[in-house]
């Protein structure tokens, strides 16, 4: 339970919702950002039961699943309101109107989405104050920085965001099409070639767990993929939840390679190393050395073994000699929760309430204050 008056931190992503309180060093609860109703129900005139979070995940095979967050953006407000209510009542066991709320958001979140979030928090949940914070900026705060380049790659987004003194540099933003969900789908395709069918909605979690357990980033992909006789050196087994054993070898490094080579998925896009280099190059020249020497990884899709070493290698090739800098990559152990942790740190500041929009301010000025106060 929270201390009286503790700020509630909500980091809602395309895959999971992380919630907790000010000052905690990890989320109090993490649950899937999904809802579902039974595909088939008796014609009794009753409304079908709505399942949320883990319960929806466990019943996924018999439910019509909805995810109100797509590519990091809230797309269904009724459903996200249901999820937030579930978080307050069932996960945190608090009354919303007794707690300030810090909500995270993706970079370049549309103005109308930001205003709608504030409106729901104040008008539906009656919170006393509200703060909206960009996930990439919070990822820096989580490790004590105010400036740097954040590579945030999760289930629904892969973004590169340069930040200077706590403010994101919007003209340096780079969005990449390859996300954790795309890697899951790619793994399913490769496993199907081996005769393992994991293509139903119920297999969603299995694919994620398999990817996290066996995949790694190759330091020389072209050499590895070009030597089939050595693929057996990468061979390993993985046990599925039903006890079935699958064998994988080159899939282990082929899947994460799509982060560096989106063309493997048929996408014409920059790799993460190229996006970082381009992002930095679009910023003021006097900031580029600082931004290249403070590259911070955040999100679950940056957890693959070997990703830091490979990024170093690729970035040092791409960097112009005139920059006189070597890439420095910071990969915090808890980077899957970086945005939430940064929010917990910000909300613990003595000045936090002054940074928020209060209920009185909202009632006087309106929701558009969000776009004036949180830049």
Automatic annotation (TrEMBL):
InterPro entries: Actin, Actin_CS, ATPase_NBD
One Pfam family in the UniProt entry: Actin
Classification via PROSITE patterns: ACTINS_1 (PS00406)
Gene3D superfamilies: 3.30.420.40, Actin, Chain A, domain 4
GO CC, alphabetical: dynactin complex
Record-stated family: Belongs to the actin family.
Protein name per UniProt: Centractin
């Amino acid at each position: 339970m929270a201390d009286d008056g503790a700020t509630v931190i909500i980091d809602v992503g395309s895959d999971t919702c992380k919630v907790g309180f000010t000052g905690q060093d990890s989320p109090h609860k993490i649950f899937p950002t999904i809802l579902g109703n039974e595909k088939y129900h008796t014609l009794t005139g009753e409304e079908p039961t709505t399942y949320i979070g883990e319960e929806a995940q466990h019943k996924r095979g018999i439910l019509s699943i909805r995810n109100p967050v797509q590519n990091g953006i809230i797309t269904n407000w009724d459903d996200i309101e249901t999820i937030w209510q579930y978080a307050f009542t069932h996960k945190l066991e608090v009354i919303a109107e007794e707690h300030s709320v810090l909500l995270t958001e993706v970079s370049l979140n549309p103005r109308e989405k930001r205003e709608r979030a504030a409106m729901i928090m104040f008008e539906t949940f009656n919170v006393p104050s509200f703060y909206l914070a960009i996930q990439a900026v919070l990822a820096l705060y989580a490790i004590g920085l105010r400036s740097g380049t954040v590579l945030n790659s999760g289930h629904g987004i892969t973004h590169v965001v340069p930040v200077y003194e706590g403010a994101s540099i919007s003209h340096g933003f780079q969005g990449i099409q390859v996300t954790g969900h795309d890697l899951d789908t790619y793994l399913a395709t490769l496993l199907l070639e081996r005769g393992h069918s994991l293509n139903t909605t119920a297999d969603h979690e299995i694919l994620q767990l398999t990817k996290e357990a066996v995949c790694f980033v190759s330091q020389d992909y072209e050499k590895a993929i070009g030597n089939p006789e050595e693929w057996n050196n990468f061979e390993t087994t993985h046990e599925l939840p039903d006890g079935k054993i699958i064998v994988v070898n080159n899939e282990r490094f082929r899947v994460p390679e799509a982060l560096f080579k989106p063309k493997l998925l048929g996408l014409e896009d920059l790799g993460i190393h190229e996006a970082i280099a381009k992002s930095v190059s679009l910023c003021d020249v006097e900031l580029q050395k600082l931004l290249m020497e403070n590259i911070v990884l955040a999100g679950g899709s940056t957890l693959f073994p070997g990703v830091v070493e490979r990024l170093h290698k690729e970035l040092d090739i791409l960097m112009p000699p005139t920059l006189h800098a070597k890439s420095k990559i910071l990969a915090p152990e808890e980077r899957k929760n970086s945005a939430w942790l940064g929010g917990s740190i910000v909300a613990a500041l003595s000045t936090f309430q002054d940074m928020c929009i209060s209920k009185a301010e909202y009632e006087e000025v309106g929701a558009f204050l969000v776009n004036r106060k949180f830049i």
